[in-house]
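Run log // design_07
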């Protein structure tokens, strides 16, 4: 299988999607997400780079595997930067969601929207987190709140609340609700999507993203209901139908400039094939949209 798709990127060069695998599960401490890259490679997907955690580093200061995760994010950040500098499209494959501290900090700009598709808020800090797992903390860290080792990854100015819009949320800890309300972050819950309808909610996200030059999408598969997407480490019931985030992502690629994207929390050990299908569908959308002409990846296997 060849790698990837072409589009003129304004400089007369062709744009390629470059997949970067992050073989990390230490942010959630449940077996499986660290195997996603190896699984996808077995299926024939081509990766530009793979970030593998170093052997166990210090586990101190409250956050589980904090040093190891910070190290992974620093290396991921430079890998993503390299792809961006070549004017290609970085597609980061998790791995748990803690990796977003690395992928997003590679291109921290005030003119960029961040779309966070997730069941969870991911705005805990070491003080508020009950589990002390880093995959519940990346968005707070990107805003400047969290473990100093994580803040070291991130360049200032930090992400501001205005830049962020969240979609599919339905599992928030009490301190996360306080955080989101205090900062004024717009989060669209799964319930609101059912009540107001998918179309109206997608339109709201599009309006948000249009206010910025570029958008980063961070797509956590646990936004989808576990009945349709069982291959995730921390499932939450009453989630989205798979078509909802896929329609959202497809609409955004049609209407705004998407510059980078994460697909996280894919756990092949817990999957029955349905989550893999959703990953492939997502990759199809990205490949078709990034390449105006054709897509070289054969995803019809
Ligand atoms: Mn998440």
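design_07 sequence
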């Amino acid at each position: 299988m060849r790698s990837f798709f072409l589009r003129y990127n304004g400089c007369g060069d062709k744009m390629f999607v470059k997949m970067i695998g992050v073989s990390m599960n230490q942010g959630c401490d449940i077996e499986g997400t660290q195997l996603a890259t190896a699984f996808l490679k077995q299926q024939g997907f081509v990766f530009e780079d793979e970030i593998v955690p170093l052997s166990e580093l210090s586990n101190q200061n409250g956050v589980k595997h904090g040093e190891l995760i910070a190290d992974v994010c620093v290396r991921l950040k430079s890998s993503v930067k390299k792809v961006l500098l070549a004017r290609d499209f970085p597609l980061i494959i998790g791995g748990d969601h803690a990796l977003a501290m690395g992928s997003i900090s590679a291109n921290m700009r005030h003119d960029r929207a961040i779309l966070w598709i997730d069941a969870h808020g991911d705005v805990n800090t070491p003080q508020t987190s009950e589990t002390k797992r880093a995959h519940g903390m990346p968005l707070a860290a990107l805003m400047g709140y969290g473990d100093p080792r994580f803040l070291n990854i991130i360049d200032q100015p930090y992400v501001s609340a205005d830049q962020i819009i969240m979609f599919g949320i339905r599992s928030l800890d009490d301190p996360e609700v306080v955080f989101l309300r205090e900062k004024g972050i717009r989060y669209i819950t799964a319930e609101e999507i059912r009540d107001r309808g998918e179309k109206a909610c997608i339109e709201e996200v599009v309006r948000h993203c249009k206010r910025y030059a570029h958008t980063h999408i961070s797509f956590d598969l646990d936004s989808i209901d576990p009945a349709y997407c069982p291959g995730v480490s921390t499932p939450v019931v009453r989630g989205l139908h798979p078509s909802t985030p896929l329609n959202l992502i497809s609409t955004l690629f049609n209407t705004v400039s998407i510059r980078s994207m994460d697909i996280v929390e894919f756990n092949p050990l817990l999957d029955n094939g349905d989550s893999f299908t959703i990953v492939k569908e997502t990759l199809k959308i990205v490949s078709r949209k990034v390449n105006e002409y054709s897509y070289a990846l054969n995803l019809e296997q």
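Confidence is low (pLDDT under 50) at residues 1-12, 292-301.
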